[in-house]
Write a structure and sequence with these properties.
Length: 175
Amino acid sequence: MPRITLTVNGQPASAEVEGRTLLVELLRDKLGLTGTHVGCDTSQCGCCVVQVDRKSVKSCTFLAIQADGAEITTIEGLTAPDGSLHPMQQMFREHHALQCGFCTPGMMMSAINLVETHAQCPTSEQIRHAMEGNLCRCTGYHNIVRAIEAAWPLMQTDAEQTAEERERTCTISNT
């Protein structure tokens, strides 16, 4: 079996994998990172979304061997070493954007990718479109959209714009 090496949540990792091993199996079964869920095994629900080299990937249809040399971020990698939550986690909590929590890891990983790839605050319609590959069976999507809108200004790093200006820009663009 081939041995792959990768970085998972900032830590080096390696494992022997069969060619057919899925990334979600590597993460859950070999590395013990069970925050990434398997909901459908067909790439329909989005529960298994992780980031591979800062891009959202549905790990239930991504071969582990494809991740050789990659940087993987899972839901477990979002919390800071001091225990503080990632801004997206904070906003999901504050805006009641979760219920049972099964879809939440995939939702958050997709939402983070969305925010990181938009220089301007995405509109509600853009958010809904980008999140179409993530299904939630418990909630309406309204609070999820609101959480993503609220997280956008917190995740921006433009030093020339204050947090209040970013918040106002996002709020104005979505009214």
